[in-house]
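Pipeline run #58 for the internal structure catalog. This entry was flagged by the ingest filter as a single-chain record with no existing model, so it goes straight to prediction. Upstream metadata was stripped on purpose; only the residue string is passed forward. Reviewer on rotation: M.T. Logging verbosity set to normal.
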Amino acid sequence: MAHIFSNQFWSNLFTSDLAIDLGTASVLIYTRQAGRIVIYEPSIVALNINTHEVEAVGDDAKQLLGRSPHGVLTVRPMKDGMIFEVDAAEKMLAAFIRKARPHRKFNTRIVVSVPPRAHQVARRAVRQVCHDAKAGEVFLVDQTMVAAIGAGLTIHEKRGCMVVDIGGGTTDVAVISYNGKVFADSIPIAGDEMNEAIIKYVREKYNVLISESAAEEVKWNLGSAYPTDVTRTMTVSGRDQFEGLPKTLILNDTEIREALSEPTSIIIDLVRKALNETPPQLSADLINRGICLTGGGSKVQGLDQRIAKETHLPCYRAEDPETAVVRGTAVLLDDIPFLRRIQIID
């Protein structure tokens, strides 16, 4: 009995197109073959110092932070939204691609979103590692553009929309109209800086050193940018910086809101700058369409309320904000002509 196979069947059989969000804190990979996100792991790689081979990547590498044996170096190759360690970033990305696509396919197309701050050397490194993974075509796209797409904003209209993407290393703000950016700016203040602010606050107030992972847990449990009705507390452990002994503290949300006041104020100042430099016609559009927040850092409680109060504009968080970038990148896999139009060309 003859079997009739559709074009889609053969496309899925011989291709495994990838959409990649190469973030400071996490790497997310969507495969067209699976139709979903298959990798969502920390942007960390553990390298053997002697052989320069990858020992672990992502979640496995994160477990080695502060615990790695002699001869193994744990690296975060992304910093402030850019590739900081090019060689380590290449090895990390290659390992993630192999993990996402264990069996090489023909005609693979890879689309990678990169931060607006990414320099030419870093972009070339991303292209090279994708080509080394036997990609037939490699496209680089701007993170703010795909964040807007992933958030469901209609960027093709001749109306303005604003997206504020708060990731791990950077906050990127863009005002978009008719498939292009009318305003775009970026600052190296985001989720990682919030963690550092909490570490600094606890160190200066209590003389206690806490880890980055502990600070991140405090941020999600107690962090806020706007006063709340209910007082929240949390126990956190660290090390007394003078006595060197373990110490336990009880922190509350008011303290952590104070700790986060500086980074959140800087982010809001960037939003204000965007509004001040947006043409009046597009500003009127934002009154109705509001400000859309994406990225993991946008999940800090009350940040949308604070921005709305400071700007007098509606502000809302996109659904599943931390995956908006990779979801927007994945959309482009189904619209190649548009992808070619907005890709970054060095």
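catalog note: The chain has a mean pLDDT of 90.
catalog note: The CA atoms of residues 46 and 329 lie 27 Å apart.
status: ready for reviewer M.T.
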